[in-house]
Amino acid sequence: MTLLQHDVIDFTLQAYQDDGIRQVGKSDLLGHWSLLFFYPADFSFVCPTELEDLADHYDAFKQAGCEIYSVSCDTQWTHKAWHDANESIGKIAFPMLADPTGALARDLDTYNEHTGLAERGDFIIDPEGRVVAYEVISSNVGRDAAEILRRVKASQFVYEHTDQVCPAKWEPGDKTIKPSLDLVGEL
């Protein structure tokens, strides 16, 4: 079953951000673009490399009108301890959501019942709270923040220009395609 156009459940989770704990819920996703970035665990191996990459690209995501929410099945207290203990994770300015029951991870089909951890998945959420793009990959392969940002921008473009599609490697300013019968077999 695909998760495309899936309406994210109404949720409320604790989050660590800006040296404090706050609640983040579905209402925080509405009205703007969001990235839910699931990763297996704090104090692990591939996860800090991905989160540091996201932190390094955070300003670019914000300029694109997209908020990042990292999510794991750790607690908000574990997020704080990791943020304080690790220089790379200390760069993170976006909310680090705690999903210790796996409710949000289950809703987006990233929860691994055998390990009790979230799988490595990223979900681009439109301003109405629907999944418009996602990727779930093996826990031993890291993701690239620049490529995720490119997919956010492409998703935003087709959201605004419903009569057009973005070809492979599309970047803002590149040509798009307006599907039509006369293009069939010509590309």
From TrEMBL:
Name the Gene3D superfamilies on file.
Glutaredoxin
TM segment ranges: none
> Which Gene Ontology BP annotations are present?
cell redox homeostasis; cellular response to stress; hydrogen peroxide catabolic process; response to oxidative stress
Q: Which residues form the active site?
A: 47
Q: What keywords sit in the KW lines? A: Antioxidant, Cytoplasm, Disulfide bond, Oxidoreductase, Peroxidase, Redox-active center
GO MF annotations in UniProt: thioredoxin peroxidase activity
- What is this protein called in UniProt? Alkyl hydroperoxide reductase
In which organism is this protein found? Answer: Bifidobacterium castoris
